[in-house]
Amino acid sequence: MADRSRAASVDPGSAASSQDTKTDAKGLQDALHEQLFANDEAGHAPDAQTSQEPTRRWPHLRRGAKIAIGLAIIAVFGWLPLRAVWENSSVEAVLNSRIVTLRAPIGGRVSAAQHVTDQAKLDAGTVVLRVVNSRGDRTRLDDLRRQKSRLENERPSLAAKLASAQSAQKDLARQAAQFRDGRVLQLEARIAEIQTSIEAAAARRDEASAAVERASSLAKSGNVSTVELARLTRELSVSQQTELGARKRLDAAKVELTAAQNGSFLGDSYNDRPSSVQREEEMRQRAGDLDADLARTDTEIAWLANEIIVEEVRFADLSEANITTPVAGRVWEMMTSPGEDVQAGQPLLKVLDCSGAVITANVTESVYNRLQLGDSATFEPNDDGAPISGTVVNLTGAAGAPANLAINPDALSKEPYRVTVAPRDAASHACTVGRTGRVVFNRPETAS
Length: 448
Known about the structure:
By secondary structure, this protein is α+β, with helices and mostly antiparallel strands. The protein is built from 8 helices and 13 strands.
């Protein structure tokens, strides 16, 4: 109480002067503390000074902490723009892949070849769907089969006719051969007879010639009359002409024999070929025609059989079609369901081509102007995954990007200049489409 009375008796002028010198709240608090505890015991003075020192040091520590936090925020949020300035890197990038659209080759009803779920991985050549057309046009197939059946039914009749004609032709050929052999023997006998007549005529000619010579000698002596000499001379002439005629008949017989041996027959009562030979030739011609018809029928049957096979394959293709995956990948979008009727050319399924992975990125104009096809690049995923190296394969700039990608490059809208990178690492084949990150491009002077 004594201290408080003393404090109350303090000069008001001195209090006003201390308020002028210390205007802030902290200074007023310190001045009041000094006035209240100025006359305390000497043992309490060190404790008061110790408690005042942390109080005075606290504002400086708080100010330093705020400065340090501000510098850290500037360093963190300023590093990315600085790194983008120092490096040739993209603004955005995403791991992408090409899309293969499977369409219906025919119209029909869709059925599931196997149970396929969304995002299911498929091997190349896997049958996913089946399109069945139960109302396929089989008119041509039926016509070909009817033509083949008709020809197959006609073929036995042609074969029987051919066999009969060939048998008749053989009989007629045998008869013609017999006639030719008999005619040849007949002509040979006639030639032998004519040769005998020639020899007889030659003998009479020799006898008549000798008689004429004797009569000519006797006529000179008057022992033979002139009439007898003339008769003998006439007989010699007749014998000579008889021999000459026989030789002419021999020549004619030899001509007939040569013709008969060659298949031609000469005579007054028939033409060059007898009726048996003519009928044999006619039957041979008929047999040849039947043989040609049979060969044509066999050829047509073989051709129809081949056409039926081709038409069966075509009808099978038009009545049923298997939808197979041309590449290894996974289902990206199922655009139909079993039991649905589809038209030819209608899209049924979209498959993500895992082997055709690419990286699409957009860059600033300055970075785009420094890039070239073939530059090396590295994709750094945002999930701290392993980097994927690649090569710049397309620079589309502000033009429209390809539309057969799983993620349209237009979705990267921060910058209009687009770049496509083909990865070289096997990690890109894992079909992790949609991973985001950034692409760092090697500068031209360090590009490999």
